[in-house]
Amino acid sequence: MIDGKKTPLRTTEVVPLGDHDKDKVLDHQCQGFGGSFPDPNVMAVTGGFVQDQPLVCGGFKEPDLAKTVHPLCYAIGKSRIMAVMKQERAYSASLPIIVDTTISNEKRLWVTGGKGKENNRLKSTEFIASSSEQGPQLPFPMADHCLLELNYATALTIGGSSLKASMMFDISKKAFQLGPSLAVARYGHACGVVAIGTQMRAAIVTGGYSEQSKMSLQTTEMLVLDNADNTGQWSAGPNFPASSSFRTGGGVTVPDGTFVVTGGQSQTTSVSYIFQLDCRMTTAVADCQWIKLEHELEIGRAGHLALLVPETYDCHDQNQGENVLADPSNTKGVYCSQLTIFTRINLCQSDCMNSRRHPSCHQRVCQSW
After folding, report:
1. Least confident of 22-31, 211-220, 350-359
2. How far is CA 332 from the centre of its chain?
3. Residues 208 and 298 in one domain
4. Lower CB count within 10 Å: N or C terminus of the chain?
């Protein structure tokens, strides 16, 4: 997680998504994300929301992965270690899933692959909440890959290092099945799911880096999903619209059916752009459109972790005792989205507490439907 001068970053941003009417953008001065990240020099982390709590796991300190890669999972906002993984890992991919509905409906963070102390790619996986439970072995070692949820029953691993492969994972059976191969092997890419028109969905992979050509990739591949068995082939989508397509924070699927990519690395420079892919007005993946959003990150960054704060998350400041969720009296319902950019991190620096200096430090946008 670096800026344009390859300087390690300690800041965190919260980016509002959806309706950007200034009257609907609320500044809560970092409430809900107070505290400090215990290690300000961690990169190549993974994470997700588990039991309404953002977890950030693994990572290492530059420049020596072998000596500094670690197994810790931190509970952001509580400034404490939530769990210890069974394996030190960096460049892993993770996804919150319900592991076993017969035991609990609460999600755990499924952490997969990555690189260990010997800079070796890993096959192991773990399920993380307040503790770690060994998960199924991957079919082959993976690192710098991407992981997404196709539906409540199926997850999909995509690419990583020199891999073109995608792997379907049956969550209830804990079993893998080989999925369709990408046209181009890639790592450090972004992935998610988008709505195609009003009736279809597609998995998307964009950007990354080619180990074969030693070049960043701007190509996009999309897999139209069949609700029956999720079979099909990857096909070409619209190219990523900028050269900053490497280490873009993993990408974020937005509840409105679009897909958002933040920052990224263009040659040796980290950028602050935010792009959104919208396919809702077409039924052909080639006709999807990338849109450059007007607002940008406060600082260019790459290799960061971007998470969508779920609607169920209680933005609650433990010191102030103030609930900053949307007004429940809105009988029409609310759609609340915000995108959190986790970096190396000291969440809510003192500067961030001054809303006039950092008005986007903690914002939530609510739009009626």
Report:
1. 350-359
2. 29
3. yes
4. C
In a domain, 69, yes or no: yes
Predicted confidence (pLDDT) per residue in 183-210, tens digit: 999 999 999 999 999 989 999 999 999 9
Residues 35, 48, single domain; the answer is: no
The answer as to whether 159 is a domain residue is no
Query: Mean pLDDT, to the nearest integer, of 71-98?
Result: 88
Q: Are 77 and 54 a contacting pair, CB within 8 Å? A: yes
Same domain, 187 and 82: no
Same domain, 211 and 288: yes
CB atoms within 10 A of CB 7: 12
**233, part of any domain:** yes
In angstroms, the CA 304 to CA 18 distance is 22
pTM equals 0.81
Contact 233, 164 (CB under 8 A): no
pLDDT (mean) for 129-146 = 95
Number of domains in the chain: 3
Structure tokens at 339: 């995108």
Flag whether 266 is in a domain.
Answer: yes
Contacts of residue 115, defined as CB under 8 A and 6 or more positions apart, other chains included, come to 44, 65, 69, 89, 90, 91, 92, 121, 122, 143
In this structure, the answer to whether residues 184 and 278 fall within a common structural domain is yes
Contact 121, 161 (CB under 8 A): yes
Supply the CATH number for residue 214's domain: 2.120.10.80
| Residue 78 vs residue 340, higher pLDDT | 78
pLDDT band at 36 (very low <50, low <70, confident <90, very high): very low
Q: What angle do CA 281, 282, 283 make, to 5 degrees?
A: 140
User: Quick one: which H or E segment has residue 46?
Assistant: strand 46-50
Determine the residue type at 303.
G
Residues 272, 299 contacting (CB under 8 angstroms) = yes
Residue span of the structural domain in which 18 resides: 1-39+309-369
Locus of tokens 């709590």: 53
